Amino acid sequence: xxxxxxxxxxxxxxxxxxxxxxxxxxxxxxxxxxxxxxxxxxxxxxxxxxxxxxxxxxxxxxxxxxxxxxxxxxxxxxxxxxxxxxxxxxxxxxxxxxxxxxxxxxxxxxxxxxxxxxxxxxxxxxxxxxxxxxxxxxxxxxxxxxxxxxxxxxxxxxxxxxxxxxxxxxxxxxxxxxxxxxxxxxxxxxxxxxxxxxxxxxxxxxxxxxxxxxxxxxxxxxxxxxxxxxxxxxxxxxxxxxxxxxxxxxxxxxxxxxxxxxxxxxxxxxxxxxxxxxxxxxxxxxxxxxxxxxxxxxxxxxxxxxxxxxxxxxxxxxxxxxxxxxxxxxxxxxxxxxxxxxxxxxxxxxxxxxxxxxxxxxxxxxxxxxxxxxxxxxxxxx
Length: 382
What we know:
Layout: E1 4-5, H1 16-28, H2 38-58, E2 65-68, H3 71-86, E3 90-93, H4 99-112, E4 115-118, H5 129-136, E5 143-146, H6 160-169, E6 173-177, E7 196-200, E8 211-215, H7 241-256, H8 258-279, E9 284-285, E10 299-303, H9 308-311, H10 314-320, E11 323-324, H11 340-345, H12 348-351, E12 355-359, H13 366-381
Helix pairs in contact: 1-7, 2-7, 3-4, 8-13
């Protein structure tokens, strides 16, 4: 049976050079980075080298990079500390953010009495910038805006420069979940006045369990996890050294090969969009995911012309044929609940049709796309 992995928005295949680097770290540089002997110093030096690598690429300062266990921890840390330490009383976000942001914001509303506001969305899932301006100017409370750069389900891109400038105009903080963006798009944090962003290595061919937060210098955030002096005292706990060097290797490879791999993956997406339109009349694209200009080149989210009864077996059928994709984010695919993103932007009739997210990487081929669309066409005719 052919195996086709088209769920790269959930996680990606780890690059061979990343695995080699991590194996070296686990076998040769196993000292505790907090130890003062040579074993520890070697590990500490590599951690700081990774921090510097990331900072240079993002045009940030190394002290602004904080290693975390991934995007979810980083999002939680930034939002919670902003309320606790920076006096944020109002959080403005959207109803199609990742649950790492949405659930954290809801918890902060309950725990701290934070005023939680949702910016209006158009039918394609884009935030209404005019409404955001109204929310920013509605009172004098300290505000934090949290809007993701690339939506993890429908791929819509927001204009982070525009949002950042608007937040700066109203003296509001701006956080962006960039988990689907870092490693796939270039960033210049000297140019874009964003206060906080988050990343996860496993979204760009690195290991799971490691990511980072960017917090602009002198932000005023204080530790969320205490008990040690790691990460300059900001995040206690012995560093996952092997994961950090794996993150660095994946990060370097992503940006050294960015233009070449972006062109390749963009071509795959364009080919998928073209072929599925040809072979499955009536297919639709959720949000702006069918656009090559207004959504990320790494994914598309299709609404298929199948009735509700037939839809029940679709993912099972694809899995039997060796095809991996997702009905929503990976965090939801194991539950019976529908996508909160699609619920916000589709009407009741559209929600009855099955929607699938297909996401692409450098390891995919057009042959795999032909096979996948052939299986979908076969299923439609059955």
